[in-house]
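Quick board copy: two proteins, each given as sequence then tokens.
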Amino acid sequence: MVARGECLVRTEHRSTRNGPVQLAHFLELNEIHLALKRTGMLVYWTPETEVRSHSDLTSHGYSKYYDAVVMIRLGGRDCKFALEYERTPKAMHYYESIRQRIEMEPSLTRFLYLAPNYDLLHFVAEKLEGCKRTLYFGLLRDFLRQTLALPVKTNGSPVSLPLSSALLEGKDAQHTGTLFPPIAV
């Protein structure tokens, strides 16, 4: 990963994480990244280390340290979203802060949460249920098999729709040519 420009930076807030659990999280995020690359539609993938840098060192950063900020091209439109891979649950009190940060986010309108099993997916969706922003929820194993055809549910509806359709809805899907400078994939 280092040879490809991705480097693991241990930051203070992560120092309490268990090493093997943290490593598994990074490896599974890498699988998500590779699945998106294989679609041929990935415009850019901004990993958490760059999201942190952008947020901490500029005046126009993100309101939360997302696992990745992703842009894909679907039908001539660029669709940008925050990706969160919730491999393990956080303490319940953290989800209120997460919800508030997502609601304050000025740069993104779409947020995808992936989890490794239904129990954790349901737990996270329940904790973020009152969010005023559109959140999409899906299973990791389904994402790795179906990628953009992944059936996702939103925090406001029990009905599933394909991730590609969800990302094309709304104002964050822009016609090609209105991109921020892409970051190497």
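And the next:
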Amino acid sequence: MNIKSLIAFVVLIAIGIFGYSYYSSKKHEERLAIMQAESAKVQAETARLEAEQKETERSRAFAEAEKAISENRAAKQVAESKKIELEAKSEIDKQAKEKLLNSAKRFGDLGSLAFNTPRIALGPIIRDMQNLKREVEAIQTGECTESAKKYLMESIDVTVYNFSEFFGDADFKLRGNAMTESLEKYSKAIDLCK
């Protein structure tokens, strides 16, 4: 073998090795470019998914805030309506208390008059007490004044019954303790109302 052939052979092998290296390097660059492109795709998809997730979370937070605002408005409306209702009930009780107090005074006056009236002249007073009872029945009461009204009506009923029986029966004895008990209950119940 001669040296020229050997040099040509070595040059040929070097060119082959260089060519293979160049070819491998190009393939490697292509694969690297494909991998980088895939990586960029994955990163873009990840960024898109993160943006969607953030948008979903933002929408959910917005919906929850809207719901909380709506619930807060509803709670305020309920509280306002309860306040109005309580004020209305308080006003009803206040008016009822005033009417019941006036009726109780009239009843007391009629009772005093009845005790100082002869048996034969009790008819008009009994009639006035019955009219008073109907007036008390017509009074619109609230929760507080309801029991006071009930006890005042009981007292009027007992008194009307007693005086009616006394008016018609000479032997009937007035039962003042039943009248007094109902009036005491009325007095306690009306005192509890503000």
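Board note added afterward: DSSP finds four helices and no strands in the chain.
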